[in-house]
Amino acid sequence: MKKLIYTLFIATAMFAGGCGIQNGDETMHPLFKKASGAKKDGDYKLAEECYNKLLQVKYESPKTHLRLAGLYDEQLNQPLMAYYHYGQFLKFAPNSPEAANVKKWQAAALKKFYIKTRKKFSDPDDAKQLQVELDAASEKIKTSETRKKLLMRYITQLKSHIGKINESASKLQTERDRLQADYEIQREKLKKQQQEIIDQNIELKANKEEIDASQQALATKNTEEEIKHLIESRNNLKEQLLTKEKELQNLKLDFENLRRMFYERNQDSDNEYRPTKSIAEPISMEKPLLDASSAMEAPRQSPKKSLVKQEVKSSAETSKTNSIQKQDKPVILTQAVKYTVRHGDTLTGISRRFYGTSRLYKLIFDANRNILQTEFSLRPGQLLTIPPLKK
Prior knowledge:
By secondary structure, the chain is mainly alpha-helical. Among the domains are: 2-120, Tetratricopeptide repeat domain (Serine Threonine Protein Phosphatase 5, Tetratricopeptide repeat), CATH 1.25.40.10; 322-391, Membrane-bound Lytic Murein Transglycosylase D, Chain A (Roll). Helix content is 67%, strand content 2%. It has a two-stranded antiparallel sheet with strand order 1-2. Helix 7 packs antiparallel against helix 8 (224-267) and helix 10 (347-355) packs across helix 11. The longest helix is centred in the middle third of the chain and has 95 residues, at 124-218. The protein starts with a helix and ends in a 5-residue tail after the last strand. 19% of the residues are buried.
């Protein structure tokens, strides 16, 4: 009897471990074929072993349960196990054409088990012991059912979590594709503007050559009015050259900021950005195209030196307001704060510094539209407003 109860426990454990396996054509499985052949050859123990192994792999197999129940009922004379596997067949195939007959066979197996047990245990004490063992077996079956429900619930939660992860990955891929497209568009625009500036430089060089020729022609004349007019024309051309140089530097900064924003947004990490060489470098405009030491005009202070002094003065004045910039960890903002742009800053980098992620850079851009024309037109010395996150 103890051996019978132990077999029942094994069947219960197999039931709890086989849940959730996908269904298929169980009759084509090698273990099913091997068990059928062993049953025909009279090797019932081998057939029982093969059927049980198949149930460990694919528990929701109604035909396997039915064959195993018949083996226990007819050949191995284990009516209790036959009753159990008849029940599993009815559970997994309730609408089968054989369901009516299986119910009868199940009732007969239960009756056979009752008669067999009654004959074997006529002593009331043995009957009580058998009842205790049956109650323990039933309790273990209930425990297995509870565990099965918990496992199914956990599997459902895992599937839901995986679905959310896949949805987030899809959104991130869409955002990356959008940023890549924006990057390509802005790069093409900057290339066109760069080419326009190069053409303008060529035109300015031609004008300079024309003015130089005019200066040589007017050098033979002693009229003060013509000399004064040439000096004014040259000064105007110098101012135009300085203006174009500033525009070119601004375009370089815009292009570099765009590349930084793209890589910071794509990687979303705290690694330091290392700028690479531009794809299309503009022509060098570090040297002025006109000779500033001409004898026709008195020397004056270089505009670049004055710009450098202004930048040094601006950085010294704003260093007091940037104490929050030294923090490495994201700041939990409860109210809007001011931030002075430094060299190499981008909106995505500032967003990561204050919010912990680069994806919220549009919040900073929307709060500073009165200062920023585009998302990548940051300049050192600009004073930005950093808004707090809404709860």
